[in-house]
Each structure stands twice: as structure tokens, then as C-alpha cells.
Design goal:
It is a single chain. This protein is mainly alpha-helical and about 140 residues long. It is built from six helices and three strands. Strand 2 and strand 3 form a beta hairpin.
């Protein structure tokens, strides 16, 4: 005989996971989590797998994935498949975007270094400029 798990109250889920109740409600509203229903007092009840899902959501967010992307991955999982192939492709896209950002930041750094190295403490005509270093092309 299977032992049926006791549903977890939203407050206990928040305490166990470290995720605020308001965030848990938001995740449920977005479809990332599903409650089993509510108590007579109106508190949401969740399966024990909610802690695993919350951990996955928080880890995926820390890797730069959006809640929409995470929802898609959870939908694949809920459909009985592992979403690893989808996640790998999305993480590769993130790496490409980061590489592009790094290149843009290096260009900006070079420009800023050039401005700072050409710093003039007293402009020739101070009344005609706000800051000649920034205004110079």
C-alpha cells in the first residue's frame, strides 16, 4: 500500500524553501507551480515536489533563464520528458549573448580609457562647454 503524503501548507513551503509566500503565489499564477487546493481557511496546499520545483526555478533564474523559459521547461517535464536538450540550447544562447556583451563592454572600456587619458583639467573656453571630455567625439 502506498503511503499518501500530507499536503504542505504554503507557509511551510515558504519556510522550507526560503521563497516568500508572495513569490510562491506569483509562481502559481504564472503556472510554474500547481496547488492541490486550499484549506477551509483558504491557505494553498502543495505536494512535496513543490520544494524540488522551487529549487529548480531558483537555480534556473540564477543562470539567467526567464520565468517564461523556465515554465516551458517545466511543461516539458510535466509532459513526461526531460527538458535537458531544451535547457542546453537555451544556455548556449545565453553564452553567445554574454560573449556579445563582453565585446560591447570591452569597446566601451576602451572608449572610456581614451577619454580619461585625454583628460583636460581646464578647458580653453569653459563657458562654451559642460565637459569637453564627454562632448569630444
Amino acid at each position: 500500500m502506498l503511503v499518501q503524503e500530507t499536503p504542505k501548507l504554503i507557509g511551510n513551503v515558504a519556510k522550507s524553501s526560503g521563497v516568500p509566500i508572495k513569490t510562491i503565489r506569483y509562481y502559481e499564477e504564472l503556472g510554474l507551480l500547481r496547488s492541490l487546493g486550499r484549506t477551509e481557511g483558504g491557505f494553498r496546499l502543495f505536494n512535496s515536489d513543490v520544494l524540488e520545483r522551487l529549487h529548480f526555478i531558483k537555480r534556473a533564474q540564477s543562470l539567467g533563464l526567464t520565468l517564461s523559459e523556465i515554465k516551458d521547461f517545466l511543461n516539458v517535464h510535466d509532459g513526461g520528458e526531460l527538458p535537458c536538450v531544451h535547457i542546453k540550447a537555451k544556455l548556449q544562447d545565453k553564452i553567445t549573448a554574454i560573449d556579445e556583451q563582453i565585446q560591447q563592454l570591452l569597446i566601451l572600456r576602451q572608449e572610456l580609457s581614451g577619454l580619461v587619458s585625454g583628460w583636460e583639467t581646464i578647458p580653453e573656453n569653459p563657458e562654451q562647454t559642460i565637459c569637453p571630455i564627454i562632448e569630444r567625439n
